[in-house]
Every structure is written in structure tokens, then in C-alpha cells.
Amino acid sequence: MKIRNKKFIAILSILVLIVLTVFVLQWYAKKYMEEFIIEKIPSNYSMKYADIDINILLGNIALNNATVKIKSKDAQQYHTAIKTESIELNGIGYRDLLCNEILTIKSLQLKNPKLHYYPYQQIVSKKANINTRDKGIKTLTIKKIAVTNGSVAIMKKSADSIKVALSSYNLTILGSSINLKSTEEMPVIFDSFQLEAQEIMVDNNDYDKLKIDSISANKEDLKITNFQIVPKYNKKELSAHLKKERDYIKLKIPHIILKELDFNFKQTRLAITATSGEIVKPNLEVYRDKLIADNLTAKPLYSTSLRNLSFDFNIDQIKIKKGYISYAELVVPDKKAGKLFFDEVDATVYHISNLKKAKKTEIKIKSKLMGVAPLTLNWSFDVNNSADAFMVNGSVSNLDAQVLNPFFKPNLNALAEGTLQQMYFNFNGNSTASKGEMKMKYVDFNFKILQKNSNKINKFLTAVGNIFIRKDSKADPKDFRYGEIDAERDSTKSFFNYLWINVKSGIVNTLTGNGKK
Fold first, then answer.
1. 42 and 137 in contact (C-beta within 8 Å)?
2. Which parts pass through the membrane (predicted)?
3. How far is Cα 117 from Cα 71, in angstroms, rounded to an integer?
4. CA distance 168 to 148
5. Which of 464, 449, 446 is nearest to 412 (CA)?
6. How many CB atoms lie within 10 A of CB 205?
7. Tens-digit pLDDT profile for residues 408-451
8. Residue 91 in 3-state DSSP?
9. Quick one: which of 20, 188, 323, 381 could link to 390 by a disulfide (CB 3.0–4.6 Å)?
């Protein structure tokens, strides 16, 4: 009996000792973490919380009602603030933390985090400043990060003004590692992620906003629902705010899909790649008030803009399906703007890239001009060609000239008659000039010049103008008339203006020249 009592007392003593040890370790761990948060977190970080819960056996820590702030080194004000209902760290590796200044965590969970970022308070160091004496964690490795019901606001310098807002998101990241002492722009690597975000707004500039209903993304795919560029003003209001010409742009795309999307942070320069993409039913409205002074700043061609991106970019193929594009110009005060539109726009873009070994970018477009006349356009360029060399060819067929009168009448004070049966054009050029050829088959083509501020025909100007225009192409071999394209680019205008003056050059030469090949 005495032996049993001794065993019982021994076992009870061991259990009490274990409990006391765990209690002491819990107390020590809590004290250590509190001191760690104050002393060993990098000096440009700040953390506050309502209370802390620790399970020393499982390596779990929970911070409730926590606030984390980050500032640039040697800066006075914080540029990032995160307030969260709770931060839960599970499966902390103590040995790496104590011996190697590496914090390894199995999972990190943030509930209802609200992030505010003030970019104008972030100071970017011009030199790499590595202080080997700076104590604290060197590397943070987290097997799983889970953010639930988060929100983001990126602020402008003006008070209470938001540049970017993300109303709600859930994010999971697997296999992440952060080098906290790195001076690189992208010190983060990860294996995979899953993002679900709703109600995104980007305040682009003084004139429009970008809005997105939802984004679903992982390392393989990106899906965007209802991408919009929304003007802040109507057309008349915009003109009142402008000193220099600027397009009114309204865009809505119900669906955008990118396949095998990858963000490569491992290189010194960020790389964004995808194998394919789809843009479904884009609707683009462009309006230009020509009564406002021209904007004479130089406009780079698309090849230049792509080449000068600050990150590597490559998408093998993008398809545009069932698009609609309209373009209107206001030329005469108090009159309706002349409008052109393209319906049933289907396009495929191959090799959108700025890589050094990039293949030639090719764009193939089919649409219906004014909703009736089939139009094709093929355009290609080499992004690495510093002269911005390009090639364009295309065609228009079965166009009743009268359908262009809603554009011709207000803009040219003229009406067109006749039928363009076929038109083919082909030209190549660079950033300064282009040359090519055109051929047209048409019947009964002529212009009627209107009297100023009237719908009546100016018979004299109409007669003089049509003297120089061949009425049809039937007198020529195979019923085609031929012309040359010769154009010089105005660098203050867009590529599409360059495209138009090439086509216009060919039309004028074909209609008024000798028509021979």
C-alpha cells in the first residue's frame, strides 16, 4: 500500500511539475513575445494590440484588435497602417526564431484587416543601405497566409481622398518567403495564391475612374467581371474643364480572362506573363471636341510604349470577341458631332511582349464599318525595332457611301454618294513616314458640297470638286483603280491618326490620279 502511495505521489508530482513548467513557459513566452514585438521587430515597424493569447505547446499566437504600422527607414510618418480584428500565427518554429533570426510559421490568418497606404509618405532610398548590426528577423517564411474579408485604401495626398479602393477581398497565399533585410524592390516569393475581390475603384486622373465589379485570380487564371472606365463629366462638362484637347473615353468590358497568369518576383525586374486571354464584348466610346486647342505633346507609338514598360511583359495571344467601337468628333459649334462606328469587332493579337527575344506582334481584326461594310485590318510590328517599323494591310467591301454621311456632313460639310465595292490597302512605315499602295473598285462615287450652315447643295463647289474625281472604276482593267500611299506622321497625334492619314492619302490618290498600277 505504501509503495502504491509513493508511486501516486511521484506521478502527481511529475504532473504538477509539468503543469508548472508549461505555466512558466507560457508566462515566459508571452513576456518574450511582448518584448520581441517591442525590441526585435525592425525599427521601421510598429505593432499595438488589445491582448495576446499564446499556446506554447502548439506554437500558436493570437493578437486581438491589432494595429501594424510601417514607415520608411529614417522617416517620421508611417506610410502603411493595417487594423485587424485578429492576427493568428499557428505552428511557430521556435528554434529558427531563437537561433537563426528566421521566423517560420505554418499559417498566418488575418480577420477583417483594413489596410491604408499613403504612398506620398514613403521614402525610396537612392542607395542600398545594409546595416548588418540591425537586430531582428532576417527572413519570414509562412506556409499558408489566409486573409478573410479584407479591404484596401490607397490614399492621395489631399485629405480623405482615395486613389485606389478595394471594398472586400479574401486571399490565400501558399509557400511565401519574405526577406525583411532585402533592399530589392521585390523581396517576396511564393508558390501559389487565390484571390477573390469585389468592388475595385481606381481614381485614374482628374477626368475618369476605373471600376471593376469583381476579380478572381490564382497563379493560373485571372477573371475580371465588368471592367469599366467611367468619365467623371459628361461631354459638355469635360470640354469646359479642358484647356487642351483630350478624348472623352467610356469603356465597358463584361468579361476579361487571362490564362496561366504568372507574376515572377524572383528576378530583379518584375515579369508578368500569360499564355492567352479573352476580352468579351468590349464597348468603347471615344469623343473628341475639336474646338479645343490641340495637345501638342508627343505621342509614342504602341511599340515604344510597350518597349519602355518598367517590367517584363508577355502574353502569347489575346482574343477580342463581339466588340463595338464608336468615334465622334465635334468640329462645328452647336452642331451634332460626326460619328463613325465599328460593330461585330473580332480580333486576335499575337505576342504582346517587350522581351528581348520577343516574336513579332501581330494584330488581325475583322469588323463591320457602320454596322454594314465588312472591314479587315492586319497590323504587325517588332517591339525591339527602335525605329518602330510596322506593316499594315486591310480591306473594306460593299460600302454604300451614304452610310458615312453622319460623319461627313458635320465634319466635312459634304455628302457622299455611290458604292465602294472593294478597297484594299497595304503600307509600311516607321515613327516618321510611311508608303504603300491602294486599289479600289467603285461605282457612281461623288461628293456633294453643302452650303455653309445649310443643308442645300453648293452646286458650283460640287461641280468643281467632282471634276477631279473619277466617278467609277469600270474603265480600268479588272474594274480596279490604283493609287499610292505617301504619308508623314505628326508625332503629336496617335497611331490611329497615322493610320487614317495613310488610308486618306491612298483614297485621294486613287480617286484623283491616273488610276494605273
1. yes
2. 7-29
3. 10
4. 9
5. 449
6. 9
7. 776 666 677 888 899 999 999 999 999 999 998 988 877 665 55
8. coil
9. 381
Task: Give CA torsion, residues 38, 39, 41, 45, to 10 deg.
Answer: 60
For residues 516 and 478, give the distance between their C-alpha atoms in angstroms, rounded to a whole number: 11
Parts of the chain with a pLDDT under 50: 128-133, 460-462, 464-465, 467-468, 477
Whole-number pLDDT of residue 449 = 58
Which residues lie below 8 Å from residue 156, measured CB to CB, with a gap of 6+? 120, 162, 163, 203
The DSSP secondary-structure symbol of 403 reads G
Identify which of 284, 291, 270 has the alpha carbon closest to the alpha carbon of residue 345: 284
3-state secondary structure 162-218: EEEEEEEEEEEEEEEEEECCCCCCCCEECCEEEEEEEEEEECCCCCEEEEEEEEEEE
Give the pLDDT confidence score for residue 453 in this predicted structure.
Answer: 62
CA distances from 294 to 24, 233, 247, 338, 493 (A): 76, 20, 11, 18, 9
Query: What is residue 143's three-state secondary structure?
Result: strand
Contact yes or no for 253/233 (Cβ under 8 A): no
User: Which helix (H) or strand (E) element contains residue 9?
Assistant: helix 2-39
> Would you give the end-to-end CA distance of the chain in angstroms?
122
What pLDDT was estimated at residue 418?
A: 85
Residue 399 is placed in which grid cell?
460600302
Place of cell 518574450: 32
pTM of the model: 0.84
- Cβ count within 10 A of residue 330: 21
Within a 10 A sphere around the Cβ of 268, how many other Cβ atoms? 8
Instruction: Provide the Cα torsion 39, 44, 48, 51; round to 10°.
Output: -40
Return the pLDDT at 139.
Answer: 83
Give Cβ neighbours of residue 296 (< 8 Å, ≥ 6 apart): 244, 492
Q: Which residue has the cell 521601421?
A: 44
Separation of alpha carbons 421 and 145, rounded Å? 62
Contact 395, 432 (CB under 8 A): no
Measure the CA–CA gap between 391 and 393, rounded to whole angstroms.
Answer: 7
Alpha-carbon distance 215 to 157, whole Å?
27
Cβ-contact 196, 169 below 8 angstroms = yes
Query: Which residue in the block uniquely carries the three cell numbers 522581351?
Result: 355
Query: CB-based contacts of 379: which residues, under 8 Å, 6+ apart?
Result: 362, 363, 365, 390, 391, 392
Beta strand extents in 331-372 (DSSP E only): 338-353, 361-369
Strand pairing of 80-90 and 361-369? unpaired
Judge whether 427 and 435 are in contact, CB under 8 Å. Answer: yes
C-alpha cell at 122: 514613403
